[in-house]
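P.,

For your records, the input lines for the assembly:
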Amino acid sequence: MARYDRAITVFSPDGHLFQVEYALEAVRKGNAAVGVRGTDIVVLGVEKKSAAKLQDSRSVRKIVSLDDHVALACAGLKADARVLINRARIECQSHRLTVEDPVTVEYITRYIAGLQQKYTQSGGVRPFGLSTLIIGFDPYTGVPSLYQTDPSGTFSAWKANATGRNSNSMREFLEKNYKESSGQETVKLAIRALLEVVESGGKNIEVAVMTKEHGLRQLEEAEIDAIVAEIESEKAAAEAAKKPPAPAPKET
Amino acid sequence: MECVFGLVGNDFAVVVADTSAVHSILVHKSNEDKIMILDSHKLIAASGEPGDRVQFTEYIQKNVALYQFRNGIPLTTAAAANFTRGELATALRKNPYSVNILLAGYDKETGPSLYYIDYIATLHKVDKGAFGYGSYFSLSLMDRHYHSGMTVEEAIDLVDKCIMEIRSRLVVAPPNFVIKIVDKDGAKEYAWRESVKDAAVASA
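Structure tokens returned:
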């Protein structure tokens, strides 16, 4: 018992918690993940690193359901994610059992963030090396939400956000291009943000969409390819429009 | 005096429960639904101590839901029945639950099934089963009229015969019953059989 009560996450002289900051480094090395909130839909997109030839890619699901109306994607240490996701799923059912109500997105985000914080202030443990993007609909008002948590245990709500590899470029893109949208437009924005940093193609991104009526739906590779093709053609059209008109042939 | 019974048909299972909530000589209400929808294709009809009944079946329901989220696929009816029995068995020699359960379900691969689980954690897979004083009547009737592969109409006809027998022969017979059915399309309420409606509250 005595061996496991020494704190591992302690303050540095200038007020940093280095273990937490190193955990954030682990997140920065994880695969890119993006979330966008629309008026009637919330979208999560995750980069899929090219699967090894012999690996069954269906067994690697990066966007998971926590409950019928809440889903999560993360960037960072995937093994840590499994633990957090399991605890969150149990809490979703436990909440339903004790108060006969489904969780709100904020409640479960606060729970996950609280768990992450606990591991920065407990003996013998290290922080979780992942940031999460949590989406869902409020079970009563039907309002969609997007939240993010990080290894320090802070959380906040977002209209659109990105985490993991190259999250800064994705966030910059989102800040420049975000506007209130719904349905397919929201999906396109999420994929466009991902394509800024990920090799183009349906087999390199995993996208899931949540609506109030149908819950979480994972998009098929063919669907993603179709949307990517749409985005590419829109981009090409925009480029063509920007080019100055060809100069008129000179009369000799 | 709680009556719960059920049977398996050709590609469905039906369970019936009385709907009276009784405390000593007082009837609290006569529209208490004792058949819980466990998940999309399972029903739990429970009878016994009211607190235990609700507490235990809700606990099973949430754990079945958790399994589905963790594993991406629902539990089979057999697995759910064995899990339920296991929970009863674990609690038995410390804090036993006084709940009798008929668990009906439909699985795509194996079709409809019915499980008899009593309060001391007996588990039997059955074609027809019943609990309570009503079982003296419903089991006898089902033994006489049941055959495998009954249609919904035939099964409901048998159910109605059982309800009539209970109403006429059981000294403190419950007035109302609820019938729920589970088939390939899911678990749903089939009908109520009411002989006493709770009086509507008179307007002020």
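Two observations worth noting. Chain B has one domain: 4-202. DSSP finds four helices and twelve strands in chain B.

Regards
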